[in-house]
């Protein structure tokens, strides 16, 4: 597990740039799916990012958590909303999700320090 979600997100961005050089069509297609999936519709981007964060917790993906915690925060998710969604992820994923949920909550606070 990474110590800093901020540094983890920087690594994700850097790695994605490298992948884009070698597999540009794949990365462009993945980006297009994300652009459509996270667009406001029947659900807001904020709610979609919170769902993605919960999935990241349940599947134990540090990179997913780091990215979607930051994006949920940017989309206006409150600390209370993040906590409630972490509760759902814990219910769905049990003890391991509790560990990763704690990390997600710490990540939300870390990104709040950016203001």
UniProtKB/TrEMBL annotation:
User: The organism sits in which domain of life?
Assistant: Bacteria
Q: Tell me the GO molecular function terms.
A: peroxiredoxin activity
Entries under Gene3D superfamilies matching the protein = AhpD-like
Q: Where is the Carboxymuconolactone decarboxylase-like domain?
A: 24-100
| Entry-linked InterPro entries | AhpD-like, AhpD_core, CMD-like
- What name appears for this protein in its UniProt entry? Carboxymuconolactone decarboxylase-like domain-containing protein
Q: Which organism is it from?
A: Rhodobium orientis
């Amino acid at each position: 597990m990474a110590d800093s979600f901020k540094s983890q997100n920087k690594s994700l961005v850097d790695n994605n740039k490298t992948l884009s050089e070698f597999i540009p069509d794949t990365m462009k297609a993945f980006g297009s799916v994300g652009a459509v999936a996270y667009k406001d519709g029947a659900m807001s981007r904020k709610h979609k990012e919170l769902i993605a964060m919960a999935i990241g917790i349940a599947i134990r993906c540090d990179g997913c958590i780091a990215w979607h915690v930051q994006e949920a925060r940017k989309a206006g998710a409150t600390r209370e909303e993040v906590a409630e969604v972490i509760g759902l992820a814990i219910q769905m994923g049990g003890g391991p999700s509790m560990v990763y949920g704690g990390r997600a909550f710490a990540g939300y606070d870390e990104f709040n320090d950016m203001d």
